[in-house]
Design goal:
By secondary structure, the chain is an alpha+beta fold. It has a domain of 51 residues. It is built from three helices and three strands. The longest helix is centred in the first third of the chain and has 17 residues. The protein is globular. The protein starts with 10 loop residues before the first helix and ends in a 5-residue tail after the last strand. The relative contact order is 0.19. The mean pLDDT is 88.
Length: 81
């Protein structure tokens, strides 16, 4: 488990989270994982609190972003692949 607390909420943490999420989705069945699973596993694997994870998810699932959320599942946006 990595402790990223000293890094803070910035570009480095965002890059690490996006890399982690990309890997998690590529490893998942049908390239989809539940939002709850992302929150729990990212918290454990990256040492992030729930608020930080939710902020990053909001930013990276917004219109035009690489990921999308639908019915509690997180997937890649088709045009982002």
């Amino acid at each position: 488990m990595m402790n990223l607390t000293p890094v803070g909420f910035g570009v480095a943490i965002e890059m690490i989270f996006v890399t982690w999420l990309t890997t998690a989705l590529l490893d998942a069945d049908f390239n989809a994982i539940s939002l709850n699973e992302v929150t729990v596993k990212a918290g454990y694997d990256l040492g992030l609190n729930e608020e930080t994870i939710l902020r990053l998810l909001i930013k990276h699932t917004a219109r035009g972003a690489r990921f999308k959320s639908h019915s509690g599942l997180l997937t890649f946006r088709e045009d982002a692949l």
